[in-house]
Specification:
Length: 282
């Protein structure tokens, strides 16, 4: 387990030689700092690294450099870590949400035919399955179940918040921000949970987070295209075959060069050269 304070000290005093990068397990960056130590650039970068790490919360530092989110059942706060990210909309100040999440007793549902065609959010089996998979650290499976749950209840605040947590843990920040934004727009008002929830640590260390926070979680800067998207676009742009006229023109030029060489070597006379050239032009 790498220590935040020790990393900050290494960065500030020994950042010139990249000691803090070696300590954090970033050997490549450490070598880069060590090679350029005489330029003074690593010294400046080391001070910046020290300030950044000093400003990080302990949970954000651990997530980025210790990857504690993947060390399940080994942390003292394991029980808290496994708690679902579900937001209880029944405590929301929005009366409409409270009515929507109220579970009707079985007898009342039987007596009221209208209730037979209404699916309560709390009865959404995909939502329950997603929460179970989230607790079992099966985040891709949880995302799949939450996606199905949203097909039934697209305005479920809890599912959107859970999706954001699951996407953050799989480091898909664009999707995490998207579902956080939707949760807030639908009435999610426990904003402190966004600042402190460990499942959202990866979201909070992104450069977009400051603007996202200042906008009360309604706006964020667009994300750069992923490498996979860039590769796909490149393949689409280069999928067209070469046009035949260009290939024919290249062959024609090559044949003209060959005839010119034969003429210069004396193999062809001027008349023969002109005759062959007329045939190519035809």
């Amino acid at each position: 387990m790498r220590d935040k304070t020790l990393s900050t000290i290494f960065a500030f005093f020994l950042g010139t030689f990249g000691v803090h990068r070696f300590y954090l397990g970033q050997v490549g960056l450490g070598i880069f700092y060590a090679i350029l130590f005489f330029t003074g650039i690593p010294t400046v970068l080391g001070i910046i690294d020290a300030l950044v790490m000093a400003g990080m919360s302990q949970s954000d530092f651990d997530y980025k450099y210790n990857k504690i989110a993947r060390k399940v059942q080994t942390r003292p706060d394991y029980q808290r870590r496994t708690e679902t990210a579900e937001y209880n909309t029944r405590t929301s100040s929005n009366p409409a949400n409270a009515r929507r999440t109220t579970t009707v007793p079985p007898r009342q549902r039987q007596q009221n035919p209208a209730n037979r065609t209404t699916t309560s959010i709390t009865d959404n089996v995909h939502k329950k399955s997603g929460i179970r998979k989230f607790k079992e650290f099966d985040y891709p499976g949880a995302i799949l179940e939450f996606t199905k749950a949203l097909e039934l209840q697209p305005r479920d605040i809890a599912v959107h918040f859970n999706m954001a947590c699951a996407y953050s843990l799989t480091e898909n920040v664009a999707k995490a921000y998207e579902h956080l934004q939707k949760a807030v727009s639908l009435g999610f008002n426990d904003l402190d949970k966004i600042h402190t929830h460990e499942a959202l640590s990866f979201v909070r260390i992104q450069p977009q987070y400051l603007k996202f926070k200042e906008s009360n979680f309604t706006e964020y800067a667009p994300f750069a295209k992923t490498e996979e998207q860039e590769n796909k676009e490149w393949e689409q742009q280069n999928a067209e075959p070469l046009e035949l006229p260009e290939a024919d023109q290249s062959d024609l030029l090559e044949e003209l060069r060959r005839l010119q060489n034969l003429k210069e070597l004396g193999v062809l006379t001027d008349e023969e050269f002109l005759e062959q050239k007329r045939k190519l032009d035809a």
